[in-house]
Amino acid sequence: MKLLDMHRDVAAFLDKVQGLRIADAQITTSAVFDVVDPSFDTVAAQVSMGTAADIDHAVSAARAALSGPWGTMTAHDRGQLLWKLADAIEANKQIFGELDAIDNGKPMHVARDVDAVYSARHFRYFAGWPSKFEGRTIPVSSPGKMNFTKVEPVGVCGLITPWNYPTLMVAWKLAPALAAGNTIVLKPAEQTPLTALYLADLARQVGFPAGVLNVVPGLGRDAGAALAAHPGVDKVGFTGSTETGRRIVEGSVGNLKKVSLELGGKAANILFADADLDKAVAGSFWALFGNNGQSCTAGARLFVHRSIKDQVVERLAEMAKGLSVGPGMDAKPHDLGPVISRPQMEKVLGYIDAGRAQGAEVVAGGARQGKTGYFVAPTVMQSVTDNMTVAREEIFGPVLCVLDFDDEEEVIARANDTEFGLAAGGWTQDLARAMRLSEQLKAGTLWINTWGDTDPASPFGGMKQSGYGREMGEEAMALYSQTKSVWLG
């Protein structure tokens, strides 16, 4: 195996303990935690461990920044800074790609050419919003009086991001929050803090005032919990598990802070007999195996019409066996990397064993791959029924469950029979059926004859226990702003 030559700036970044980014300072604490490369189960870096006291310090810095140059900056200038940050991300996409490959394990070329590039696009889209954030003049019935509205930032936003898309999920939250004029305390996932810290450095380099973006890595039960409960935080945006989302809500009640949540999923993907089979099989395959199955929108429950199930399963199994799996920084690009950690690998393997015990048949994969790192062989399971654990719970790994069905009404009911509602979709050449799916499937995002598409202009979020609030598009600006009504007499 030959690994890629590491960019010199990445090597320098990893060579020293990375401190918290608060205001103008990089603060190295006495307690540090290891950042593990999941491809090799080795320590890649050490990062200062933020605590509740550090969160308090960061919130104070963010609060002060609201009253400083950031608070008086024109909409035009705020948009220009967002655009400059987008340029800096794209100019340094190699560094983002390598850092994500090292602490997340995803193939470097994917982290560089997809995650980093789309993060830059996200900032560019929201760079246009500050100058278009307008209030209204309202014709009221009171004689001689005038009423108008002003749209203002919420204030200090606590953003808590997950490990599956370390750069992109930060961009999804950070860009609209900054566009609306807020200041930020960011708590990235402890498994993948590196690109968030690097992004904070770039933000300072391009001219963001001190205290606008503060990054405090640390454990969820300590720094994350403190951020959710802090009385100086006006808004929390969280992406992660449903269980943690509930704790975020509980922690927010002290000052009734605004909360938005993008939580877990168990997406139903329905393949009808009239579908374009080549397109549908390929699309359904990557709906699950994209990002190694570590996505809340993964098409984890693939319902296939009984008349075509056998040939679809055969093709899926063949594709899974043909995937290239290996380290994120391998000189030979791979299709998939490892899962994020040893506990996650053991959890995924446990789900596979539970599926077997309940009667599911493994037709591809089904075991750990290799002895080094946290690799799970891409797995396809058939003979899965709705009541099995693998069909009910979010696995968050490279495990595709195939279920069969007979008719449309039946499969829609089964698809909706879940506590989650983040994504769903189907494959059919019948336009009327496609419209029925769009009306009857209960999820925040639906994909018909495609899967996984997102755009900075298109809203994204969940229903039911997959959360509330919408990221991206105009709807995201509403998450990070508030409206003031002004009367003149």
Automatic annotation (TrEMBL):
It comes from the Bacteria. Belongs to the aldehyde dehydrogenase family. The active site is at residue 262. This is Aldehyde dehydrogenase (NAD+)/phenylacetaldehyde dehydrogenase. GO terms for molecular function: aldehyde dehydrogenase [NAD(P)+] activity. Keywords: Oxidoreductase. Transmembrane segments: none annotated. Residues 31-486 form the Aldehyde dehydrogenase domain. PANTHER family: ALDEHYDE DEHYDROGENASE-RELATED (PTHR11699). It comes from Pontivivens marinum.
